[in-house]
Amino acid sequence: MPYPRSFSSLLLAGFALVTLPLLAGMAYTAVVQERLAVQTRQSITLTVKVTRTTRQLAEDISSLQRAAGQFYVLQDPQLRSGMGEAHESIRQALQNLRAMPFGPSNTERIRQIGLREGVLYAQLNDPANVGLRRFDSFATEFNTLGRLADQVAVAGNAMVEDQAASLIRRAHTLRIVLLSQAAAAVLLSLLIAGLFSWLLGRPVHQIDQAIRRLGAGDLQPQPRVQGPIDLVFLGQQLDWLRQRLRELDEQKLRFLRHVSHELKTPLASLREGVELLADGVGGKLTAQQREITQIMRGNARDLQARIENLIGYSRAQRQLDPLVSSGADLAALLDQVVRRNDLALRAKHLQVVRSGHAPLLKADRGKLDTLFENLLINAMRFSPEGGSIRIDLRSADGVVHATVADEGPGVAENDRAHLFKPFFQGSRQPPAAAPGSGLGLAIAQEYAQLHGGEIQLCDTPDRPGASFCVHLPLQPELPAVGASAWTTTMTTASTNASTTAPPSALAPASRRLPDAAPQRNELADSSTDPEAEWQPTQPSNDTPS
Known about the structure:
Blueprint: H1 7-74, H2 80-98, H3 104-124, H4 132-136, H5 139-215, H6 229-278, H7 287-318, E1 323-328, H8 330-340, H9 342-347, E2 351-355, E3 361-364, H10 365-382, E4 388-396, E5 399-405, H11 440-450, E6 454-458, E7 467-473, E8 486-488, H12 493-497
Parallel strand pairs: 1-8, 2-4
Antiparallel strand pairs: 1-3, 4-5, 5-7, 6-7
């Protein structure tokens, strides 16, 4: 269906078409009511004429009989004129009755009245007929005329009743017709209104969906807006905005890759120099110098972990790493993650309480390792000294549910909507902790979504801290990602790579918790892609739990 040039034109056209059936119905109602009014007036006029004429006929017959009696009794020639007037009045009444819609039987009665009255009037005017006795001989004829007149009057009353009944039937039929027409007009108006509501709402809904997808970070091409030209132009502007945001996002990721790559070489030289100093190549170190060297070594490792976090987030965003499918024992994986971070847990006197079990998952063990280590490191970062961290496992309806809960300050209400956004730093930061990268929860969410699941912040009003709930399907149905989405293997390369302790966890001089799970295969072969040289695992977010 072609659209008008503007939204307002479409709105006005819709309003006009919606009101058109109603206006047509009103016009038809007015015409029909006018016809009924005319028929009613005609019926009333006929009723009055019939009633008046039949009554006048009966009175004229009585007048003729009275005038004839007076003439025959008194023999006054002047009284003969009274008989003539009565005769003329009867003839006029009969003429009026013949013009009325009587039936055949009543028409015959009217004709008989006219014939009998003419014969009787001629006999009354015959000079040979004189005397009262002769007048009495006409009584039978007068009675016959009166009886016929009464029959015509009764027929007239019946005709009036028929006219009234006909009007009632017509009014009833008209009411049914008007109600049906009104229902049809309303239904048609509703159909037209629904059609134009769809025509008006379709482009608005498309624009609303495009805005929502932009707000959700979906920068993929959207369906073209179909509708009036001004709304189509608005859709084109939104698509231009989407392309611009996508360019900016690509520039951001490219900047992260380049910065990470450019920092790698000087950082490697810095770490090599620190290691040479620590090994005493430049001479024996004093105790103070060794302490400074240990601090430099820890800070260099922290810097390396942050660079790896940037590279890992970039790779997760572009989904460059294929998922290695294997049977993952989530309970054993969580125990391994806890053991790997034992030194950091001891540093803050934290206790980890793990409960529950889950069936084997069809998942990438290495990415799940990074996911749960990020959540654990996030809980360690915000847990108070001497607190506890709870990790619960359960499964239901083909979905594994894992909960990582701490006893920290919790998440501020204003931070909830931005919790899994990259580089987001919550408002409730630990006072003694170094600033993190803000990528841990973002990458954990990316990895959960790669497995067809998600991570949510669960409400726990009965206890302090934050609880992160991970939902992972046992048999995920995943679309292809990059060149290969899933690679089924029975090797243990990914699991073996995850057993090395985090560098920052082994730095007692700095005593700082890592803000992300660092890269464990840092000596991977280099390639043209700067990210491929580092092969990082993913960091934990610094958003306050």
